[in-house]
């Protein structure tokens, strides 16, 4: 997934918009999300999530689909807090 920068004229490049569209509707695909990622984008799940993290940090993504991007950012923050709490609890 090499198209991870914004269009110089502003807005998302098509690959970024495609990733956001997939996140909006991946549950409608047959099979698991990992399989759908490989089939649709031809990348590993890890590479997909690295690209997704970059995309949702892009202000153009927030402008493109504010509800989805805010939801994904909230989910990421929740996962980070949970990981941090587990680490602190292990000490």
Distance between the termini: 38 Å
Poorly predicted residue ranges: 2-9
Beta fraction = under 5%
Secondary structure category: mainly alpha
Give the beta-strand count: 0
Q: Can you give the helix content as a percent range?
A: over 70%
Average pLDDT number: 87
How is the biggest beta sheet arranged? none
Rg from C-alpha positions?
15 Å
Summarize the structure.
It contains 5 helices and no strands. The longest helix is centred in the C-terminal third of the chain and has 25 residues. The protein is globular and about 40 Å long.
Describe the structure.
This protein is mainly α. The protein has one domain (14-90). The protein has helices at 14-25, 33-41, 45-56, 59-64, 66-90. The relative contact order is 0.14. It has 5 helices and no strands. The N and C termini lie far apart (38 Å).
Write the layout of secondary structure elements.
Blueprint: H1 14-25, H2 33-41, H3 45-56, H4 59-64, H5 66-90
What distinguishing features does this structure have?
70% helix, 91 residues, mainly alpha
